[in-house]
Specification:
The complex is a heterodimer.
Chain A: E1 2-9, E2 12-14, E3 36-38, H1 40-58, E4 62-72, H2 76-86, E5 90-95, H3 102-116, E6 120-124, H4 135-143, E7 147-156, E8 160-167, E9 170-177, E10 180-184, H5 196-202, E11 207-211, H6 212-215, H7 243-252
Parallel strand pairs in A: 1-4, 1-6, 4-5, 5-11, 6-10, 7-10
Antiparallel strand pairs in A: 2-3, 7-8, 8-9
Helix pairs in contact in A: 2-5, 3-4
Chain B: H1 2-11, H2 43-60, H3 64-70, H4 75-83, H5 102-113, H6 117-136, H7 139-150, E1 156-159, E2 175-179, E3 182-193, E4 200-206, E5 215-221, E6 227-229, E7 243-254, E8 258-259, H8 265-301, E9 303-304, E10 307-308, H9 313-342, H10 347-372, H11 384-392, H12 401-413
Parallel strand pairs in B: 1-4
Antiparallel strand pairs in B: 2-3, 3-7, 4-5, 5-8, 6-7, 9-10
The chains are: A alpha/beta, B alpha+beta.
The structure holds flavin-adenine dinucleotide (2 copies).
Chain lengths: ~260, ~425
């Protein structure tokens, strides 16, 4: 019997479909009055934890408790409710209105791990807002735990897991003992919809709140953003007369050949 | 060049994920849009709405035109929706319903119908039948029929209209005569949505004298002796669901399938329709929202006279009028839905006026959107024509809009 506790990190980000805009000061992306939702890679992480829990229950070989955690402003609780509606058991919100860089989040997560003592921490390989792709790796470093990143397949063994990773030019299979860090890639699974009754029931699931001070973590930013600019506007297309003309333009105008 | 590609790639691969196959236009900054359908909703309602919209974007929208063209009834997709709770939105939870209110339901139908009006409208009829059995059926009827209806393993149809009794529904002539342990039904029902594909038929038939008080409500299963169906009607819209006549020739229905008491049928049918009118109005809201969104997209991209159509004041004013009537329709529908939740005594006339206003105005919005698309709006490659055709019938069924005026004027003139 394995009785696992799985911690899943979920981040509230600007919805993937929103046309993002740089704010007037050129210091950040505009987030006011913009639709937010759960980072898609974290949806995949939540789904993976639920699938592990369901598989254990089905084979009667164990149980899993799924704890979701989100660090950020109060609105992050919406994201946690979504994860609870999908099937997580309880939630932890680490409240911070300050900017949280990946190292700060990794340290906050380490503090949560020390409280919760999970067997596995699942994170997205990256968040689609700042695309840092570091938090999982930093957390593994801070905890000195093994890590399996960019997972496209996970098989649970006895106190271990075998993970297929998507790497440049192919896939790689690694086996790690638990506890360990897992980061999700896009093809790991297709997250389920939360059903209407589960959305309503999620309100009643426990949601614990901590401040950064409660966890005693230094979240001071180590990186400074100098400026944020929009990509150059796309130019209209041109119809070329001949193949020679095309090759010439690719060489001399676009300079891609 | 390279940087543009990276940017595109950054978001593009996510399209594989579940939340992300939206074919509709990109989401605008939400709270700044006057037609944002989430304005004024509670956080809970916003969540229900977001689930319904995501489901519509992923499961309905990419298929809408194909279902329309091929007249295909998407039973599997409906069952997938039922897993999320769409099969018994305002049915109690002990039989698999979602136990939501009518305003919640309106918000959900509006969101779903942005992806396919016809399919959502069928879901709304199924929900009306399920609710009627839940509210007026016996405990045995609830336990026997509702679990399979809320899961949409079985589909339901509502049978009131007859060839000779449309607007004058209380004049229906299908008879039900009690013989021992059965009622024997004779007559035919016209224009039955889901007719033929449904497993359960909620049928109004006359057990007593003329007029509304002589009507009773029955649950009739497909396969009961003496029940058959007419040909599949060829329709202007609502093509993802079948419409057929339902014919009863000495159809034997066990007495325990009488819903409520003898003579209560017309009142049950009308209670169902109050909600049905709000539901169908909600489906019109979704059609109008999607059409207006499409028009907004088109007028910014399409250039004539060396400028985008959105530069012309006629276009701008037209868009403002469309948004205004969408908003007024939504407010009326939501007020009527809230009154259903409160079981308000004047609910019938508010439902009637909301249905009248919303279905007429939203149809006009679809037509205005088509007009702003120019010749392209007339082509089946574009979606507007489907919203227009599908929402046309909302002005006719669940009581024509003239009958809505009748209901409203009676309430006005009654002392
Ligand atoms: C696609 C489709 C699906 C349907 N699905 C169902 C279903 O699932 N179940 C069901 O029971 N029915 C269903 N109906 C039937 C629908 O409810 C009727 O068509 C509607 O009630 C109108 O009845 P009718 O067609 O007989 O028109 P009529 O009653 O003949 O009306 C014709 C015209 O006369 C007007 N009129 C009639 N009486 C008056 C009056 N007193 N004052 C002023 N004007 C009046 C009407 O407003 C209308 O404009 C469906 C219809 C369609 C087209
Ligand atoms: C079924 C069909 C058959 C056709 N047959 C023929 C044919 O046989 N021969 C032929 O030559 N053409 C034909 N047409 C083309 C038809 O004449 C055009 O569709 C029509 O002139 C509109 O042009 P458009 O579609 O490019 O729309 P657009 O010009 O893009 O117009 C889109 C919208 O913008 C509005 N608009 C445009 N400019 C202004 C302005 N300055 N101020 C305010 N509003 C403006 C329009 O009124 C319209 O609502 C056909 C079209 C269809 C759909």
């Amino acid at each position: 019997m394995s009785n696992l506790r799985i911690l899943v990190a979920t981040k509230r980000v600007i919805d993937y479909a929103v046309k993002i805009r740089v704010n007037a000061a050129g210091s950040a992306v505009e987030t006011a009055n913009v639709k937010h939702s759960m980072n898609p890679f974290d949806e995949i992480g939540t789904e993976q934890a639920i699938q592990i829990k369901e598989a254990l229950a089905k084979s009667k070989t164990g149980t899993a408790e799924i704890v979701v955690v989100s660090c950020g402003p109060v609105k992050s609780q919406e994201t946690l409710r979504t994860a609870l509606a999908m099937g997580a058991d309880r939630a932890i919100h680490v409240d911070s209105e300050e900017e949280l860089q990946p190292l700060a989040v990794a340290k906050l997560l380490r503090a949560v791990v020390e409280k919760e003592k999970p067997d596995m921490v699942i994170l997205g390989k990256q968040a689609i807002d700042d695309d840092s792709n570091q938090t999982g790796q930093m957390l593994a470093g801070l905890l000195n735990w093994p890590q399996a990143t960019f997972a496209s397949k996970v098989e649970l063994g006895d106190k271990s897991m075998t993970v297929t990773r998507e790497v440049d030019g192919g896939v790689e299979t690694v086996k790690t003992p638990l506890p360990a860090i897992l980061t999700t890639d896009l093809r790991l699974n297709v997250p389920r919809y939360a059903s209407l009754p589960n959305i309503m029931k999620a309100k009643k699931k426990p949601l614990a709140k901590f401040t950064v001070a409660d966890l005693g973590v230094d979240i001071k930013p180590r990186l400074q953003t100098l400026k944020i600019v929009e990509p150059a506007k796309r130019q209209g297309g041109k119809i070329v007369e001949s193949v020679d003309d095309l090759v010439d333009k690719l060489k001399n105008e676009a300079k891609v050949l | 060049m390279a940087s543009l590609l990276t940017l595109a790639a950054r978001r593009a691969p996510l399209r594989l994920g579940r939340a992300v196959t939206s074919v509709s236009s990109q989401i605008r900054n939400i709270s700044s849009s006057p037609i944002d359908p989430s304005v004024g909703l509670t956080d809970d309602q916003k969540e229900l709405q977001s689930l319904a919209r995501t489901f519509a974007d992923n499961e309905f929208a990419p298929k809408m035109q194909e279902w329309d063209e091929k007249q295909y009834f998407p039973a599997d997709v409906l069952r997938k929706g039922a897993e999320l709770g769409f099969g018994g939105l305002y049915t109690r939870e002990d039989v698999g319903g979602s136990g939501l209110g009518r305003l919640d339901t309106s918000v959900i139908f509006e969101a779903l119908s942005t992806g396919c009006v016809s399919t959502t409208a069928y879901i709304s009829i199924h929900n009306m039948c399920t609710w009627m059995i839940d509210s007026y059926g016996s405990e045995e009827q609830r336990q026997k029929y509702l679990p399979k209806l809320t899961s949409m393993e079985h589909f339901a149809s509502y049978c009131l209209t007859e060839p000779g009794a449309g607007s004058d529904a209380a004049g229906l002539s299908t008879t039900a005569v009690k013989k021992g342990s059965h009622y024997v039904l004779n007559g035919s029902k016209a224009f039955i949505s889901g007719g033929g594909s449904s497993d359960v038929y909620v049928i109004m038939a006359r057990t007593g004298g003329p007029g509304p008080k002589g009507i009773s409500c029955f649950i009739v299963e497909k396969g009961f002796k003496g029940l058959s169906f007419g040909k599949k009607e060829d329709k202007l819209g609502w093509n993802s669901q079948e419409t057929r006549a339902v014919i009863m020739e000495d159809c034997e229905v066990p007495v325990e399938n009488l819903v409520g008491a003898e003579g209560q049928g017309f009142s049950i049918a009308m209670k169902g329709l109050n909600g049905g009118r709000v539901n169908i109005g909600s489906c019109s809201l979704g059609a109008a929202q999607a059409s207006l969104d499409a028009a907004l997209e088109h007028v910014k991209v399409r250039k004539q006279f060396n400028q985008p159509l959105s530069n012309f004041q006629n276009t701008q004013f037209k868009l403002a009028d469309m948004a205004t009537s969408l908003l007024s329709s939504r407010l009326m529908i939501r007020q009527a839905a809230a009154m259903l939740d409160q079981d308000h005594p004047s609910v019938a006339s508010f439902c009637a006026m909301a249905k009248l206003h919303a279905t007429d105005e939203c149809f006009q919005i679809c037509d205005d959107s088509l007009q702003l698309h120019g010749g392209y709006g007339y082509l089946k490659d574009y979606k507007v024509n489907v919203y227009l055709r599908d929402s046309r019938v909302h002005r006719i069924l669940e009581g024509t809009n003239e009958i809505m005026r009748l209901v409203a004027s009676r309430a006005l003139l009654t002392e």
